[in-house]
Amino acid sequence: MIQLLPSPNYPIWIVLMVRVGEMTEEKFLNQTYKLETQAETLAHYEAWAETYDEEITENDYAQPERCATALAQYSTSKEIDVLDIGCGSGLSGLALSNSGFKNIDGCDFSPAMLEKAKHTNAYRQLFIADINEELAIGAETYDAVSAVGVLAFAHIRTEALHHMLRVIKSNGLLVVGLNEHYWEGDSVGDKIRTLCEEGVADLLFEEYGDHLPGANIGGWVAVLRKK
Ligand SMILES: C[S@@+](CC[C@H](N)C(=O)[O-])C[C@H]1O[C@@H](n2cnc3c(N)ncnc32)[C@H](O)[C@@H]1O
Q1: Is residue 113 in a domain?
Q2: In angstroms, what is the span from residue 4 Cα to ligand 1's centroid?
């Protein structure tokens, strides 16, 4: 938006236009935690795509870098094939790319978010997918999957962890980064521990830290190795 300081030298109508513009600049972050249905979630991200990066960066979004660092710690190579699930506008892919990963694909169910992700140049390919359903790709396709800020009540449900694990090769990695409310509230942490008890995966890393420190929200990062 054009920045103009109210000044006696500006006609009153210009000052009013700027003030109205400031008042109507829509913020989306708080609404994210009130979403209930998948349709609401999709509409929310379609509308937010244009300003998502700006609003989330204003709040010092920490998860993309935390997840990329954790994945790098357990990966034997940066040449591995990584699928960034719920890639959004591409902040999570950019963090992976900045950590040295070279072969990153991304998917999301929001076309507007995928359009943004395209412009990051962080991804080898991008495709539309609803991860609450089984992905239309073969089992054991990827060496690693990342799911950054996507496991949440109305977003990607805990059952989707099975869809993520299906596309990972044996001994491949899954990195998950999520808001603290969903680690406890939606039992993502419990689901991960159950998967490990069932012998599906090993939990290599689990760490509490920043999620959106600008909004006083902490979050968890977990790294699993599929058996
Ligand atoms: C908070 S954003 C996170 C985006 C990105 N990973 C990041 O860290 O900036 C959540 C993303 O999940 C996507 N999403 C939500 N539910 C989804 C679903 N069922 N299938 C695929 N993507 C979904 C949204 O469209 C949105 O882009």
Answers
A1: yes
A2: 35
In testing the pocket of ligand 1, which one of 57, 150, 186, 211 has its CB within 8 Å of the most ligand atoms? 150
* pTM score of the predicted model: 0.90
195 token code pair: 């998967």
- Residue 212, domain member (yes or no): yes
42, pLDDT greater than 60: yes
Indicate the number of domains in the chain.
1
| Distance from residue 140's CA to the centre of ligand 1 (Å) | 22
What angle in degrees, to the nearest 10, is found between the helix axes of 91-98 and 63-74?
Answer: 40
Q: What is the CATH number of the domain that holds 154?
A: 3.40.50.150
Residue 206 lies in a domain: yes
Instruction: Give me the pLDDT at residue 23, please.
Output: 45
Mutate to test the pocket of ligand 1, among 53, 155, 174 (most ligand atoms within 8 A of CB): 155
Q: How far is the CA of 113 from the centre of ligand 1 (A)?
A: 8
Within-domain flag for 134: yes
Residues spanned by the domain of 62: 57-226
Provide CB contacts within 8 A for 57, sequence distance 6+: none
Q: For residue 57, what are the CA distances in angstroms to 79, 179, 185, 202?
A: 28, 16, 25, 32
